[in-house]
Amino acid sequence: MRPFNKNFPNVFFDRGRLWTKSDSPQTFFEERIIRQGGFYREWDAKRSKLAAALLKNISQIGIKEDSSVLYLGASHGYTPSFLSDMVSKGHIFAIEFSPVSGRDLVALCEKKKNIAPIIANANHPEEYKDIGKVDIVYQDVSQRNQVEIFLKNCDYFLNSGGFGLLALKAKSIDVTKKPKDVFRTVRAELERHITIVDFRELEPFEKAHGFYVVKKK
Amino acid sequence: MDFKSFRKKSFVDAKKTIRESVGEDEYILHAINTIDDLNRIANLLTKRLRDWYAIYYPELSMNIEDHEAFIKAALKETRQGETMGKDLDKKDLEPILIFAKEIERLYQFREELKDYLNDVTKNYCKNMHYLIGPLLCAKLIREAGSLRALAMMHASKLQLLGAETALFRHLKTGSRPPKHGIILQHPLVGSAKEKGKAARAVSDKISILARVDYFKGEFIAEKIKADLEEKLK
Prior knowledge:
The structure holds two protein chains of two kinds. Chain A is α/β, with parallel strands linked by helices. Helices cover 27% and strands 31% of the residues of chain A. Chain A has helices at 49-55, 78-86, 99-111, 146-157, 170-173, 179-191, and strands at 2-3, 11-14, 17-22, 33-35, 39-43, 68-72, 91-96, 115-119, 134-139, 158-169, 195-201, 209-215. A seven-stranded mixed beta sheet of chain A has the order 8-7-6-9-10-12-11, with helices on both faces. The relative contact order of chain A is 0.15. The model of chain A has no long low-confidence stretch (mean pLDDT 91). By secondary structure, chain B is mostly helical. Chain B has two domains: 23-124, Orthogonal Bundle (Helix Hairpins); 126-233, Nop domain (Serum Albumin, Chain A, Domain 1, Orthogonal Bundle), CATH 1.10.246. Chain B is 75% helix and 0% strand. The longest helix of chain B has 35 residues, at 90-124. Chain B starts with a helix and ends with a helix. The chains are: A alpha/beta, B mainly alpha. Chain A binds chain B through residues 68, 91, 93, 99, 102-103, 105-106, 109-110, 113-119, 130-131, 175-176, and chain B through 1, 3, 6-7, 10-11, 13-15, 17-18, 21-22, 168, 171-172.
């Protein structure tokens, strides 16, 4: 068990897999936990696009121990639970639209003290404007207008100098186009508004998914 | 506001939103999904029962094709004529009959669920219910996600609900476009000679009725149905 990379707090690497050190060993997900001066939770790159991006050697994501994060598309809360370990001194606002996966999310948040669950539509940031400014906007929503949603939320909530992380599902933008072409159009679209820091395709962990890291001026 | 108190409030809000998100759409969704599952499972179990029962009285299974009728006959136990079946001890026959009873109970429950679904849809979307019946109603709502989504949908999209594979194959490779999705299960479409034309007419009317139902309009389905039957004659 060794630290994965100094840019990513509290992430470890062992036997080809990612782990986070965690105070709360009992989540409802079925990952293995091993002891080595603490609890470590296995972070499956096939289930989490952020983990996939890390394993694809993304250079930086701007997340620090005390970051505050806006997470759009939290779903059942798999990735947020690991993000919660990373920002051990910060906190996460987890937005999810579907009340059905919202049930799991709320149950998870009861266990993770630094996540606040919000059932709202990421298309309408004014619904959750109370959260104020954040250091990181993470988005994984698989909507046709996901880029628009991302830019809108970055505009609304991101501190200047803050990072935006966008997990992009090419197939929800246009199934008929090749993913590479979609990535190119999205890059151009993003560049018009914000600085792109890094980009990775998530093969082989996810098909036709890209991961963008952007920084607000 | 500090994070701790914000989180406290967000739990209350989130739980409330989740609680209030449940309505007739969910009742319909779960009922129709359960009916589908029951169909599959009862079918599977009856096949198993047929195999098992055949050691006792194989001729019965060969003569009765319908699953439900077969179970009824098996429970009545009318073994007659010269049979290939073995005379089973009571203790070896009993589990077979208990099994048959359980499956009969599943079929019975399915019918009860259909009645329930009928009540819910009749109450929730009376116009659509009148034109297309509870099962198709429920399936369309399931494909669309909710009555609201169905009401907001173009009639042309409604027409193709359930034919997504064919539609996207058409968009991707330019193969022939699909003419109908689950709407084919409507008797006016299924029995029509020109199915594409009928599918279009029927989906138009369903779309109108879905909107009337969603916005709690009056009962107009009788007239619409008459128009439609006239048109497709």
